[in-house]
Design goal:
By secondary structure, the protein is an all-alpha fold. It has six helices and no strands. The chain has helices at about 5-10, 15, 20-25, 30-35, 45-50, 55-70.
């Protein structure tokens, strides 16, 4: 089974307006299925990861590490 991002976005309009859509793309389809039995449902763990600032934290750590290597 395949799922295009456009299909997912049509099913989840709240994700279309999310500031993390480019990076998240709705998260993992398995996570969406486990959360509500619908493979097109949002992966709530991905939502928590992005919306609670973990993406920015890991990005900053990576940038800091890369700067130390150069």
């Amino acid at each position: 089974m395949t799922c295009k991002v456009s299909e997912y976005m049509a099913h989840n309009p709240e994700c279309v307006t999310c500031r993390y859509t480019y990076n998240c793309k709705g998260g993992c389809r398995a996570g969406g299925t486990l959360g509500g039995g619908d493979y097109l449902a949002p992966d709530m763990k991905a939502c928590l990861y992005f919306k609670n600032g973990w993406f920015e934290r890991f990005k900053a750590m990576g940038e800091k590490y890369a700067a130390q290597l150069s």
